[in-house]
Amino acid sequence: MLHTAPIPTSLPDRFVFPADQLPPATTATISLPIIDMSGGRDEVRRAILDAGKELGFFQVMNHGVPEQLMLDMEVLAAEFFEMPEIDKAAYYSADINKANRLYSGTTYETGGERYWRDCLRLAYDFSVGDHVKDWPDKPQRLREIMEEYVVKARGVGMEILKMVCEGIGLRPDYFEGGISGGDVVFQMNHYPRCPDPSVAVGQPPHCDRNLITVLLPGPVPGLEVAYNGDWIKVKRIPGTFVVNFGCQLEVVTNGMLKSIEHRAMTNSEQPRTSVATFIMPSGDCLIGPAEDFIDENNPPLYRSLTFAEFKRTYNVVKLGASLNLTTNLQKAQKEI
Asked: Do residues 102 and 93 touch, judged by C-beta distance below 8 A?
């Protein structure tokens, strides 16, 4: 059920996390490695692998997505969340299995979301004719811009995956087919101004369960990445995407490339909106360490699971409870 009350001036109790559950604060701010995708292919490929091994995160520029499209996406995403609640009510659902839905911790009266975040999650299925018929059509041009944007953002992710293949010795089409053939999940995250950021969480520490993520972070800071036992604030560079490797890429490379924890912090000064594009495997795709990375000296660190099984595993153990994804996965897999 929706209500139209303004965001409260004090934080409701259900959003207050005990001190021992709050992520440690950080003051470190860095610019992630910036990779110019218009450079020589060998140079770009090497930069992607170096950044991926060091941080699991990097930024890309000259990626082929028009900057005006990125700006339009930022503006329209923010405008969607600023619309009156009555205009968004039809998209709200508490059903976590629904492909397209709006859910919220800050604006709706009921629901278990404890995080100071509103989220519009949409699925783009390349196998059907009308990909976006169930997507929001307000504000004006939102659906048109979202569809153009998600196709181009996926293209950036797939090109990066091709370069990863070239760099680590996998066949060039390794990430074609089922391993990247699920719905492209398009997620707009909105973090309203928070009455008390010191005790609230936008998104908790987590690793992405997909293959690769292409993020439009927006102009307001809030993304933080785990690094050397601490957290670093990501400095946004206009015109770039933030890219990070998901759990499936770590599994395929048997731990060579890492899926790194990250989190979203709140602030009391201004709202923040980000747009994430997740390249997902199909549910029945069997994923395990590639044979290229397995020998008598390098046993598999992970079991082979379908992506559907992996998602159940992901929910058994909160991947991100520590900085060691391998340990978390191995512990979770015992539950299957």
From this structure: yes
The residue whose two tokens read 């218009």 is 38
Q: Which two tokens stand for residue 43?
A: 């140079």
119 touches 189 (CB < 8 A): yes
Map out the domains of the chain as residue ranges: 25-333
- Say if residues 118 and 102 touch (Cβ distance below 8 Å): yes
Give the integer Cα–Cα distance in Å for 53 and 48: 9
- Token pair in block for residue 23: 């992520």
Cα-based distances in Å from 148 to 124, 208, 226: 11, 23, 32
Total length of the chain = 336
> pLDDT of 178-237, one tens digit each?
999 999 999 999 999 998 888 888 998 899 999 999 999 999 999 999 988 888 889 889
Q: What is the residue-wise DSSP string for 101-112?
A: EEEESSSBSS-S
Do the strands 118-124 and 184-191 form a parallel or antiparallel pair, or are they unpaired?
A: antiparallel
**Domain 25-333, what fold?**
Jelly Rolls (2.60.120)
Beta-carbon contacts of 116 under 8 Å, excluding residues fewer than 6 positions away, are 15, 105, 106, 191, 192, 194, 200, 201, 202, 266
Give the span between the Cα atoms of 28 and 6, in whole angstroms: 33
**Model confidence pTM above 0.85:** yes
